[in-house]
Amino acid sequence: MFELIELLTQVNARILRALSPLVKSSDISVTELIILWKINKNGPCKITDLSLKTGVPASTLTSLFDRLETKDFLTRIHDKKDRRCILIQGTPKLKDMIVSLVEKADGELTTLLDTLPPEFLKHFLEDLQTLQKHLIKETDN
């Protein structure tokens, strides 16, 4: 089973390496992109919640948010349920950047994987989704 971890890690590294020029051209780090992706996908969130989801310490996220707020990707708002709590939310500029990056990444991945049979990719994605659901079920108990 360790082979699974090794293979997934290697495939992930190769895909990230192929996509790294896209990230570099967007003037943000990979860590910043991961954080921005999660905020864009999940909506406003607390720093502590994002820290738990990403494994990035809250103190690191605070300085990262300062940089991303300066770049107009994020904004801080008060939680309507608890005014003492600050939420981090994406701006329209973040949404535009994510849409653009996803389109470019999709094009790069399509080119990269173009020689694989379409049925293989379809089944592979379905299998990965099944694995993810299983792991969520097993680890959330």
Automatic annotation (TrEMBL):
The GO terms this record gives for MF are:
DNA binding; DNA-binding transcription factor activity
Specify one Pfam family: MarR
Q: Which InterPro entries match?
A: HTH_MarR-typ (IPR000835), WH-like_DNA-bd_sf (IPR036388), WH_DNA-bd_sf (IPR036390)
- Domain (HTH marR-type) spans 1-137
Keywords from UniProt, A to Z, are:
DNA-binding, Transcription, Transcription regulation
* Name assigned to this protein: Transcriptional regulator
Lineage of the species this protein comes from:
Bacteria, Bacillati, Bacillota, Clostridia, Eubacteriales
